Amino acid sequence: MIFENLKTEIQDAILLLTISRSEKLNALNQKTMDELSSCFAWIERKPEIKGVIITGEGEKAFVAGADITEFLQMDGPLGKMLSKKGQDVFFQIENSSKPVLAAVNGFALGGGCELALACHMRVASENAQFAQPEINLGIIPGYGGTQRLTNLVGKGKALELMLTADKVDAKTALQIGLVNHIVPQQELLEFCRNLMLKIVAKPPIAVAMTIASAIQANNQNGYIIEAENFSKCTSSDDFKEGVTAFLEKRKADFKGH
Ligand code: COA
User: Fold this and answer.
1) Strands 6-11 and 168-169, how do they pair?
2) Residues enclosing ligand 1, CB less than 6 A?
3) Cα(19) to centroid(ligand 1), Å
4) What is the pLDDT along the chain (257 residues), one digit of tens a residue?
5) Claim: this prediction has a pTM higher than 0.85
6) Among 118, 115, 114, 112, which residue's Cα sits nearest to residue 60?
7) Catalytic pick from 4, 114, 126, 160?
């Protein structure tokens, strides 16, 4: 698919998705949000894509936030629409049946931090910086950040970040559990590819059901959903193949059904 503000490249079943507005530090305008939505709908339809890495163009920013120039006309009703739409796009990413990894290569501010939070895992380059600075504009994170940040790092730390707008560096992000790893910037994509290669070698139904269950962790019905998803795995050929291969002491040949 061709996009104006996204670049896509498939290699070894992994889609590298680059947010590409580097002159605006990859800020998410509505066009980019629409393209992210179309891209994730396309990813679901493409069996040859088994995992996704999202990064930002250039060496300075992952995404420096929602595009603030589009906030000028915003009033109450428009604000609600914009927040709902942003939440929907980021739900689409979180609900992706393919694992999504954020390769955070610089500033991840506001909507950029929320985008990283909507991904299933995060790896930061040494120069990455994270913040939810919305409060400085008189607003709050509106693309799911109040929920996902709190779920990931706990109420106390999340509230401190959202109420002070302070930036945290990669080391602090690792300490508080906001990212899984820190690597030098030149090694970021290779590290992410290697991590993703391990995951895309696993049986795709079990990968999808693990994600679908884990993202329900704070939902009271999470245990019911986990049991349903467990049953979807035990109905698959890959499950039979995995068990048989183990018993026959050979490597499993997963087909994705
Ligand atoms: N929305 C729209 N444009 C943005 C943007 C955003 N969130 N973040 C950066 N840009 C634009 C700048 O306006 C500038 O455009 P210009 O060259 O046409 O003037 C360009 O990107 C480069 O940014 P600049 O501010 O010159 O870079 P810097 O190195 O001096 O500062 C930041 C980098 C990230 C600290 C600064 O851009 C910033 O604070 N951005 C806003 C962050 C924010 O509040 N995000 C949350 C929004 S809810």
Assistant:
1) unpaired
2) 24-25, 27, 64-69, 107, 109-111, 133-134, 137
3) 15
4) 899 999 999 999 999 999 999 999 999 999 999 999 999 999 999 999 999 999 999 999 999 999 999 998 889 999 999 999 999 999 999 999 999 999 999 999 999 999 999 999 999 999 999 999 999 999 999 999 999 999 999 999 999 999 999 999 999 999 999 999 999 999 999 999 999 999 999 999 999 999 999 999 988 888 888 889 888 989 999 999 998 998 999 999 999 99
5) yes
6) 112
7) 114
